[in-house]
Amino acid sequence: QARLVESGGGLVQAGGSLRLSCEASERTSYRMNWFRQARGKEREFVAFISWSTGSTNYADSVKGRFTISKDNAKNTVYLQMNSLKPEDTAVYYCHSGYIWGQGTQVTVSS
Prior knowledge:
The chain has strands spanning 4-7, 10-13, 18-24, 31-37, 44-50, 56-58, 66-71, 76-81, 90-96, 99-100, 104-109. By secondary structure, it is mostly beta strands. Strands 2, 4, 5, 6, 9, 10 and 11 form a 7-stranded mixed β-sheet that branches. Strands 1-3-8-7 form a 4-stranded antiparallel β-sheet, with no helix packed on it.
């Protein structure tokens, strides 16, 4: 059964950085997505990357601060998050095809 496993979350001060990782046991789609869900809010799209072309897209709220990248050999996608803000606090999920990861908590203190 295909799995996605996230890692790299944690607690950071505003203005700091974190890098999330998502390792896929197998590819179930042409692209990998990152979503996030803050407490009491709906899950929202953050970024995606194409496994083959490397093309990317970002939510307006993270453009210029977050960078999504991939390592095809490791079936792993990364989300580098810089200049973090308290409003970035959420559980971050990777998603591909019909599979969701378990999520990793990111908390940004002010």
